[in-house]
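Z., the sequence and structure:
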Amino acid sequence: MKDNQKIYGYVRVSSKEQNEDRQLKSMCDFGIPKERTFVDKQSGKDFNRAEYQTLKRMLKDSPGSLLVIHSIDRLGRNYKEITNEWRELTTECNADIKVLDMPLLDTTQYKDLLGTFISDLILQVLSFVAEQERGNIRKRQEEGIAVAKAQGKHLGRPKAEITDKYIIEYTKWKNGEQTATQAMINADMKRNTFYKLAKIMEVERV
């Protein structure tokens, strides 16, 4: 790494619910300031991620900069996406890339022809492995769902049912003997579920 080389970090998690702290810590430990660390909470299937596109524009404006990522799958979800983005970053943006969890993927260390060949070869192998692992995870999920269905297990949220207790509280509410709020408390039911079942009751009574 050159003394005057600008350094940027990129962090991505697939959804707002996922935690990016581990990736952020690795950027901080490498010495990348927060203002040069770009974070997206979005699936890897979409490359129009706001922070990522801003980062690429900044890399193009600062040729020779270094981009640090925690792992190669932060660039994309499969072999083709990862290798395409890698080549665009290194050629069109003229940036160096360092992958923290795979030290061999560090373009600042391999500038000669042999080094570039080895780095590209490792990239292609790891990209392929990442794609295969993603496919294996999806296959295991599908197999698990199929087994659960075969065993008669219900997947997802349990379906709300009209019970005798609900009918009693619903009837008291409709007869003006209690408020809807009190009926929900007595029936031990959330507001949305209570009214959803109420609509079913009204249809059945028509």
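Strands lie at 7-13, 37-41, 66-69, 96-99. The helical segments are 21-30, 50-61, 79-92, 113-150, 164-174, 180-187, 191-205.

Let me know what you think.
H.
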